[in-house]
Design a protein that fits this description.
502 residues, alpha+beta, Neuraminidase, 3 domains, six-stranded mixed β-sheet, five-stranded antiparallel β-sheet, 8 helices, 17% helix, globular, binds heme C
């Protein structure tokens, strides 16, 4: 049969086939006609992008909340904005295409929707304006869209410096975990070699904290979209190659991603774990501080005590108090047992980081004005004592509690001045500092044995110093694919020797 088919048909078929392929690739119309428009995949993202800012449950302009399908169809002061099957008769299409004052989004706020977007919505209405199967009409569309979103795989080599927002020493003290773009990066800081990559849903990592059992809690998010705290076993999983580095899947592999503790509508920026590992506190852009029980992950308290982003959080040594710092220019101590505020310490600027000292007596706040101040964690406290100043914003703090003698504990602060400063948190004496960063130092960590302090900066540089004398041990670029130059103390000493020879 096939062989006996006349040849000209073959050419026709081929031409027809080519034409169809061409249309499917380059002409949108035929493919779109054939398919039904999906509300959740195609319409809801347009609404979220252009309309939800004014038409969600909070703002509700025109008494219209379109963040659920039911709310969308319920309309506002007017009725259902949709006449199923008849786009041209629908209020929705009227307001999107209007030349008058009633145009949506409003003229003074933005341009009209692109014609292609209006066409998608109109087609969906003409096809009956149906909600996709399996979605509850009252379900939050923001959440439905979020649950469908899949993180991209990070680039094998980054085109831009990796902004280091968080870093932590591994429990054995041999490596540093550094936040990357949709991933965690484990660097052997002695060689500057990238040992392992752990893919994450979060685009950015803002805070890292190890649990006593060696699991890693990570706070992060996608700005303006979502935020989370997730617990990982970064050693587990079956590694695959990404840019020549063993890489495990912390997004889907249940051996690597152990638990999703917090899930929020915007980035989570701060994270702390109580000394006994039984409580986790997190805060971020939604202003709330949430305390979870571990290992269950049960939400124990949700504290609305700040008027702006929560940038820092820390536990008292006994786990009964937490300290929080916010862009609202206050640092506060909260009693987690009595569930009440102990003290609100006023600062003149945003509070970027906070800790409670190892004796539980004092709060320390690191602020936008560069100051690092210590103050009594008691009601009526108004005055603080200056521990030091970065001159430019003081961005992060890390504390190490000496298990043998709390008086020998360490506190480190990092700042926009490119330095890390060290203090004794009991008494507040200044110790040696680390310097030489060429950009803002957004992250700081102290090694588990209290011997080393590491910082990470906006331009991807990680520098590791000896606590005892502030000497630089190693420096490298923590950007995947960067040409790694490891600076070390020896070479510096060599330079000095050479200079002396001259
Ligand atoms: C900057 C805020 C803002 C944005 C963005 C916005 N709207 Fe509105 N919308 C309003 C206000 C205000 C009203 C009430 C107007 C009135 O009652 O005169 C309104 C009313 C409406 C109404 C009429 C509701 C009713 O029943 O009275 C519809 C439909 C509507 N908007 C659709 C949209 C759509 C679709 C988008 C996105 C493409 C959008 N809006 C984006 C502010 C906004």
């Amino acid at each position: 049969m096939f062989q006996s088919r006349p040849c000209c048909y073959c050419i026709l078929c081929t031409l027809l086939g080519l034409a169809i392929t061409w249309l499917m690739l380059f002409g949108h119309a035929p493919a779109a006609h054939a398919q039904e428009v999906s509300f959740i995949k195609e319409v809801a993202p347009i609404l979220k992008e252009n309309c939800f800012a004014c038409h969600d449950a909070k703002v509700k302009k025109g008494k219209f909340d379109m963040t659920t399908y039911a709310g969308f169809r319920n309309g506002g002061t007017k009725d259902d904005p949709i006449t199923p099957g008849k786009a041209k008769a629908s209020i929705l299409i009227d307001v999107l295409t209007s030349m008058g004052k009633d145009r949506m989004p409003p003229k003074d706020v933005s341009k009209p929707l692109a014609k292609e977007k209006i066409d998608i919505i109109a087609k969906w209405i003409d096809q009956g304006a149906k909600l996709d199967a399996g979605i509850d009409a009252k379900a939050s569309l923001v959440r439905e869209l979020r649950s469908r979103w899949q993180p991209p795989t990070p680039a094998p080599a980054y085109k831009f410096p990796n902004v280091v927002n968080a870093l932590a020493f591994t429990p054995d003290g041999k490596s540093l975990v550094v936040g990357g773009h949709h991933e965690l990066l484990v660097w052997d800081y002695n060689t500057g070699k990238l040992e392992r990559r752990i893919l994450t849903r979060a685009e950015r990592t803002y805070a890292l904290a190890y649990l006593p059992d060696g699991k890693l809690a990570v706070a992060g998010g996608r700005p303006g979209q979502e935020g989370d705290v997730r617990i990982y076993n970064i050693q587990a999983g079956k590694p695959k190659d990404l840019g020549g580095v063993p890489t495990v899947d912390g997004v889907n592999d249940k051996d690597v991603l152990l638990q999703i503790v917090a899930d929020a509508d915007d980035s989570l920026l701060a994270l702390a774990i109580s000394a006994d590992g039984k409580k986790l506190a997190a805060g971020g852009c939604d202003r709330f501080v949430r305390i979870f029980e571990l290992p269950s992950g049960k939400l124990e308290q949700s504290i609305e005590n700040h008027a702006d982003w929560v940038l820092g959080v820390g536990f008292s040594p006994d786990g009964k108090k937490i300290i929080t710092g916010s862009r609202d220019r206050t640092a506060k101590v909260w009693d987690t047992v009595a569930k009440e505020s102990v003290v609100a310490f006023p600062e003149a600027n945003a509070v970027y980081a906070v800790v409670i000292t190892p004796d539980g007596e004092n709060g320390v706040s690191a602020c936008e004005d560069g100051g690092v101040r210590m103050w009594a964690a008691k009601p009526q406290t108004k005055q603080g004592k200056s521990l030091g100043s970065h001159g430019k914003p003081a961005l992060r703090m890390a504390q190490w509690i000496d298990p043998k003698d709390a008086k020998k504990s360490l506190l480190a602060s990092s700042g926009a001045d490119g330095t890390i400063k060290l203090y004794n948190p009991i008494g507040g004496a200044a110790l040696k500092s680390g310097a030489g960063f060429t950009d803002w130092v957004y992250a700081v960590a102290i090694s588990p044995d209290g011997q080393l302090v590491a910082g990470g900066s906006y331009n991807g540089e990680v520098r590791v110093f000896k606590v005892a004398d502030g000497a630089l041990i190693k420096a490298f670029d923590a950007t995947p694919g960067a040409i790694v130059k490891v600076e070390e103390k020896k070479t510096e000493d060599k330079k000095k020797v050479e200079e002396k020879k001259k």
